[in-house]
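Recap from last week: sequence in, structure out.
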Amino acid sequence: MDSHKSNSLAEAKRKKRELVIVCILLISIPIILYFASRSLRWNIELSVRHKVLVFSLININVILLLLLLYLILRNLVKLFIQRRRGIVGSHIRSKLVVSFVILSLFPTMVLFFASVQYISASVDYWFGKQIDKAISDATQMNIDFKNLIIKSFKAEIDNVFTPDYLRQISVGNGSLREGVWDLVFLFDKQKNHVLNEWRSPIWDVSSQSVSEYLIGLGCFEARSCESGYGEVEKTAFIFATKEIEEKNQLLVVVKNIPQEFLEKSRAVAIASEEYANLSALSVPIKSGYILSLTLVTLLIIFSAIWFGLYLSKELTVPIQALADATKRISAGDYDVKIEAKSEDEIGILVRSFNRMAKELKTSKESLELANQELNIRNQELERQKQYMEFVLGNIGAGVMSTDKEGIVSTFNTACEKILKINSQNVIGRHYSQVLPDEIQEMLDICLKKRDEMRKQIKFFGNGQAMNLFVSVNAMKDVSGVPIGVVAVVEDLTEVEKAERMEAWQEVARRIAHEVKNPLTPIQLSAQRLDKKLSPVLGKEHRLILKDCTQLILSQVEELTRLVSEFSLFARLPKSVKVEMDLVGLVKEVYGVFLERHKNVEWQLETVEGPLMVRGDKEQLRRAITNILNNAVEAVSGKGRVWLRVKKAEDKAVVSILDDGPGIKAEYRHKVFEPYFSTKPQGGGLGLAIAHSIVKEHQGDILPNSGPTGGTEMIILLPLEP
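Predicted structure tokens:
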């Protein structure tokens, strides 16, 4: 669907581009007409038919020339784009086209320039000065000959028609003499025929036509009309006039021109006119020949390009098919067959490729059958391996194994967590380089004695004391040959903590139960004594009584607070977990402490935006409050406390740092135990309650030393996905 749409868009773009080219050609035609007409300087006026013919020929040549140029440039640009895009076969296509163009261009250009020189020389010779002078001389000779016979005829008429003879003719006493004339007219002043006599009956023209022609010349009005040349009804003649002044009459003597002379005279005139027309068209003729030669040259170049493209197509199409088929085979599709359309070397190559593809398909099917059997076996082994890895990865005890040389081969996830060592840094290395000394000693003994060994050790990892139970056993194959050892490590720290916590919670519950009952009577009795005895005692005894009762009441309040903490520690209320913003909670607690402990220098750093966790807001508030109370007590109410909230991967981190005296390293693993405190007035339950709350929220709380002293408590809580 997408490829069809893209092809349609490409086709539309191509049509639009071709339409633009056609429009440019159409616009260029009148422009070419304009410049062609401006470039020509006519010596004579040409007929419309000649002009249309000349311009049509020129513009047809120009249009064909532009079309050929477009086709050549289109093919060359298309070839260049294909080469830039790296299309298969474009390099061969380019080389073939360039080779054919070069082979055809050199002789074509030599022939083109030689032909242009020959045509230019020929046209220049046709319309040169010698030919032009010969045509001009012939035309002038024709005119001079006409003038000569007219002058001779006039002289003869002057000799014959003397003034006396003219007077006789005018009065009708004389008759016309024989002479070289064929027709005589005598006109009166009203231009009427007084005399009209024919001498040549074979002259095929009416006297009326001749007389009308002569009257039309205006010989009566113009004295210069004494002799001349005329044509009537495709017949030529010469005439001479004699004026009879006494009678105001005009004698016109006409002589016929032989038909042979008339035809030759007209032929000379027509030849002169045609030569003048051709002379005016010398530049267009030369341009037309040059354009025709250019068209032939471009046609040869286009033919070379087309033949190169055709030949390259015959080569590259099978190569493209082979390349595509090779890609399909490399992608795993062996059902490939290329149609061999020729019997040449390319066809042999295609058929060889088809045989190879068929053999590859057969080999693949055989390999697939073998692989299926192998995969079935591997899947069974993989299932057993995955089962063992699943068991090792999900048991709480750490499991590690080494070969008989002591190189670690197995190190499960529980081992990573217990020993705080990444398996990538252990597997493939000798155990003496990576494992704690206590475990190394047990492995040394077991590898030497080939026996088993069990021992409970105390291990310090990342500053925390841990109680571990390690069991090491020698591994042997079915024949009893030692192949290595396997060690199982169990972390008893949390179990012991849980046992101690449970014992302390039971103690706290009993203490709270036993102490809470008498506190209320004691408080009421002290208040009653103060109320009853103060009025009856003297001032001194009254002050003593007041001090004693105030002391009793303050101690009762302290005991009540301790009992409340015992009760809370013994049994935390059931948490109601909801999605909440940890940053907002920290800011609320920070605001309370900022107002309550103004002598302490506070500093808050939080991330932008909320950090969403799932928890009980009141319990988390109590946990943070207990840790902040410890920090305030550590700085004696006038130091500096930093409260930071940030994000680390999928955890929300709350860091509380003070610049107090800090916690010694040997006490750090005990800070969360009940009733442990380094402060003289401390009860040791605040951090224990905070630890229990954080653990209830699947988090962790870590004690650290500050970078410049003091104590840093880090709370880690899982973020909501």
